[in-house]
Amino acid sequence: MAQPRCRSVLITGCSRGIGLGLVRGLVEANPAPDLVFATCRYPEKAQELQQLSKQYSNIKLLQLDVVCENSIKKVVKEVEEIVGDKGLNCLINNAGINVLASLEEVTAETMLTIYETNTVAQLMVTKAFLPLLRKAAQLSTGMGCHRAAIINMSSLAASMQLVQANEMFLKVYPYRIAKTALNMITRCLAADLKSDGILCISLHPGWLQTDMGGNMAPMQVQEAIPGILSVLDRLGEKENGSFLDWQGETLPW
Ligand code: NDP
Fold first, then answer.
1. Does 165 have pLDDT greater than 80?
2. Over residues 178-201, mean pLDDT
3. Does ligand 1 have an atom closer than 6 angstroms to the CB of 183?
4. Which of 61, 95, 110, 247 has the smallest number of CB atoms closer than 10 Å to its CB?
């Protein structure tokens, strides 16, 4: 009998960087998911993603601004119309922002902006897609992306245990605090949704050369994507509620 596989994936923030790399990696994989919902807030400006979606018919390019309630509602409806009773197998909460701010520089406004995009949005997007994730979960057994999974794109910078080891992150107060809160969302969802058969993890994608990662980063996006996809492929009940990196290593909270 064929192995169960992930039929549908939705990724936020696919206009560039890791989100775009994940879309490319997924459609080039063998087997590729039947449907890759590549969402971004300004599809008309996302030239590379547009090109890719012309090459691969399994890419559905949809508009989604993760901090906009109406945009979330609209995209859920669009996805529902396509997947029907099969639901959605995997939601990757990838969209994120960073604003450099040391202790001296950080303001309430920056904290709230980052918290809105990097933490609150992930919870709201996940809540909105829960009915579709539940539908997919009902059609399969076990745990993992073949059934139903939520992947929260976190960061090594969020680890409370590694704060001392990563002094370079001291200038990113808002970012790392918001990602630590995102990790708590992962833990809560993993506990809450376990009985539905929906898995949730936090993933550190590696320090990668993107607009956010900068050009000092040791790796390019395409170097980390095979690792990330293999980690996602291997997820099972044991990994539910864990904090993993792109090589599948467990990170301390
Ligand atoms: P980039 O800055 O290159 O890309 C960020 C993406 O998020 C863009 O597609 C951007 O869209 C999108 N985005 C931002 N705000 C919104 C919004 N409100 N709605 C929808 N999309 C939005 O970042 P990376 O690709 O490097 O990062 C991706 C994820 O990985 C982030 O969550 C980041 O925190 C995490 N990460 C990255 C690391 C790295 O080294 N690069 C390391 C650890 C974690 P737009 O083009 O419209 O602005």
1. no
2. 98
3. no
4. 247
pLDDT at 121 exceeding the cut of 80: yes
CA distance 150 to 138: 15
Give residue 177's pLDDT: 96
CB-hemisphere CA count at 13 Å for 249?
A: 9
Single-letter amino acid code for the residue at 15: S
User: Closest Cα to atom 8, ligand 1: which residue?
Assistant: 13
> What 8-state DSSP symbol labels residue 41?
S
The pick from 12, 18, 180 for probing ligand 1's pocket by mutation, whose C-beta has the most ligand atoms within 8 angstroms, reads 18
Cα-to-centroid distance, 111 and ligand 1 (Å)? 17
- Per-residue confidence band for 170, with pLDDT thresholds at 50, 70 and 90: confident
Radius of gyration of the chain (CA): 17
Sign of CA dihedral 227, 218, 90, 200: positive
Cβ(205) – ligand 1 distance below 6 Å: yes
Q: Which atom of ligand 1 is nearest to the CA of 175?
A: 34
How many Cβ atoms from other residues are within 10 Å of residue 46's Cβ?
22
Q: What is the ipTM of this complex?
A: 0.99
3-state secondary structure of 10: strand
